[in-house]
Request: fold
Amino acid sequence: MSRKPLSEGSEWTFELLQSYDTEIARIAAGFGLDTYPNQIEIITSEQMMDCYSSTGMPVFYPHWSFGKQFLTVEKSYRRGYMGLAYELVINSNPCIAYLMEENSMTMQALVIAHACYGHNSFFKNNYLFKTWTNADAIIDYLVFARNYIAECEERYGVSAVEELLDSCHALMNYGVDRYRRPPALSITEEKHRQKEREEYLQSQINDLWLRTVPKKERYFQEQAHQFPAEPEENLLYFFEKNAPLLESWQREIIRIVRKIAQYLYPQRQTKVMNEGWATFWHYTLLNRLYDEGLVTDGFMLEFLQSHTNVISQPPYYSNHFSGLNPYALGFAMMSDIRRICEHPTDEDRKWFPDLVDTDWTKTLDFAMRNFKDESFIAQYLSPKVIRDFKLFSVLDDDLNDELEITHIHDEDGYRAVRHVLSDQYNLGNLEPSIQVYRVDTRGDRSLTLRHYQHHRRPLGESTNEMLRHVRRLWGFKARLETVDENGRIQKSYECD
Amino acid sequence: MSQFIDRRLNPKNKSAVNRQRFLQRFRGQIRKAVADAVAKRSVTDVDRGEKIQIPTKDISEPTFRHGQGGRREVVQPGNKEFIAGDKVPRPEGEEGGSGNRASDTGEGMDEFVFELSREEFLEFIFEDLELPNMVKRQLAREATFKSQHAGFTSDGSPSNLHVIRSMREALARRTALRAPSSDRKRELEVELAALLTGGEPDEERIAALSEEIALLERRIRAVPFLDTIDLRYRNRIQVPKPSTQAVMFCLMDVSGSMDEVKKNLAKRFFLLLYLFLTRNYEKTDVVFIRHHTVALEVDEQDFFYSRETGGTVVSSALELMKDIIRDRYPSGDWNIYGAQASDGDNWPEDSTNCSRLLIEDIMASVQYYAYIEINNHEPHSLWMEYEKVAEYWPNFAMQPIYSAADIYPVFRELFKKQQA
Reply:
């Protein structure tokens, strides 16, 4: 089939964007991609830097750390160390994507395919996003958050709010529920409930601490229960509900940071999948455009050049190496699933009997919907991808003087490498596991956190500083105990 | 259906508030960096931004992290020669393969570096000097321009179109372009009339003439009434507003008793005056005169950084200033400002010479003369004599200085006058 190309030169216009989008949407629908409606916004590079520096959100509350981020981005951009990302896309409904004015027509088409159809369909259908984020409400909620924080700054002073936000940001990764599904966000409800919450919370706190005033000796012997009854891993949630001295506006701000952390949490768990999915689809969609004769050879060459840059994976000994590239790994795995469905080898038949000779669009769709990085790798990483990447696992044990190469890309190693790599994407292993263990409700109200060690790994240098943030939120003495796998306390930190 | 929105005209700088927050938070470190920068810079070079470095550890945002040690197994790409069971020595420093590469820009990785804009830089200087807001605004302002008529140009915006000029051009062009054809046509018409009235008309010739006349008429008609080259626009240019010049004399005692601290205070003093002058005059010259027992005109480097020993004769500097004014800066053409910094030491016999020189010669030709006495707790004879000068001349200001914040009052009169 040969048709007239949509455009020849590298200049884009709104009419051209429209016609590319129409064609890409048609092809994407043909492959069964299910997306939110798109809202595509054209911005300048300065505006892109602005977006960059506050977690990519179109509205966000002000904080010095975003200023620092902005300075960093600006410096490396001005010096040409770093190109800005071509796009930014937000998990909202409608799905907001930013295109930069400076991009050529080819790049705009690439970005539309990547963000507006790739990421967009991932946001809409992956189970983590479906369960844990509310695409409909996020923008409203951010507006609410920004206004609320501005109001607090006016009422209680910028520095008081900033201190609180510093502490909340430090503990942001410990402000997510991993197992409980959070209630849906809604702006009107949020405003309405906020008042109720304030009053209710304060009364609860009072109740909890009333018991600290000694009444009768016997009462305490009866009440010798531990608080909290179960260890709590969502530290921010615990502070919001239980810290004795916080005022209601402080609880609300903790809640805001917690909600945003929760919203961002699925993105941290699906880097490889999300980028792999989007990259796979921009590659597939644009190739189809080319097959239909809608784009020129020049377009394809420019596209392939940036595509190749995006999915390059330097080896571990290279100067450019900075870990596994999620785009590269994700793209390779997604493409590999298609290959296994369409052109399986004997090896694939042995490893993936359920995948071979199925409809690749359905299989891939299933993979996208029901996994996160950790489980996706455990399920789908094939020997071929392991060989292509020449993956090998290294054991660094401080009991040994040397590093040991435990497994490589060979018949004996495939399963083990896959297992180690899957673990590597388990956020639970990456971050130290720290939970609220006990509050001394009858004594000095001190708080004890416990760090449950995994493979004897100790806490890093920032621990004492972190404990000061915990102390600030809790309001009383804070203690952190590192507990080894046998339940023995290895090390203890304290902040008065 | 996707919706496209053009946001390019939305305000950028959405992050400006975050930047301000950042500067506010690290005020202490930045102020120190600014003070260092001022010490390093020339007086005439204060009017631009500065690169600021802050130790990275001061601005890091902590999180709970794993430290070194324990047992960890990681997967890396790009195996070359390893097989399972190989042992390799643990690499030095960073774990993982990335390591810490030295930066090739000369900045350490331990420093967070960013640019302070000119406004922000001045803001930090002014903060130290405790300038009132009015003055800060006045000094931080860019040179102002006034738009002025400057004749006419052949291109411009339609709103500046000058109709009469354009029509006049059009008329001239029409006349000029039509002239050759008109002349020729007139000649031919005369010839044609002669032929027609003559005895036996030469039909062929008549036809040829008529045809040529018709051609010429078409040619005349083809000259347009108004052409783009006729258009004339009013031209406006931007001229810097106060287009005058000033010279600033910096006089400083460099005898042994002036140490680095005193000189740095003096530098702030000269710097402030310089900023004021550059805002108010298009061109500002600076003359540096240092003195101990004899005075010498020097460049800025020598002025601030060379040290002399020996006694102090202030009048030598004033003599030199007087001579330079006479030779190079006639007071009719130049606005002259004097700024003198000293720790107050002088030969007692010389002080009367100083006040006499100022009262009789110098003060008449200068706009303003400011004197600061640095870290001197009991006034010497020079101070007493200068008090007399202040009585005679209202444009003479003097002030003892103990810290940077004391500098501004010296200039109070100066800035007040300018605002009026």
